[in-house]
Amino acid sequence: MDWTERVGHLRQWNRGGERAPHKPLLLLYALGRFQRRPGEPLRYSDIERDLSDLLQDYGPPRRTSPAYPFHHLAGDGVWEVRTNHGTGSPGTGVRALRESEAEGRLVPALRAALAEEPALLGRLAHLLLDTHFPPSLHADIAEAAGLDLELADRAGAVGTAVAARTRQRAAELRRSVLTAYEHRCAFCGFDGALGRIPVALEAAHVRWWAFSGPDELSNALCLCSLHHKLFDRGVLGLDRDRRITVSREFTGRGTAARRQVLDLTGRELTGPQAGSAEVAPEHIGWHTGQVFRGEARTPEPSRV
Question: Which residues touch 269 (CB under 8 Å, ≥6 apart)?
Answer without folding.
Answer: 186, 187, 221, 238, 242, 243, 244, 279
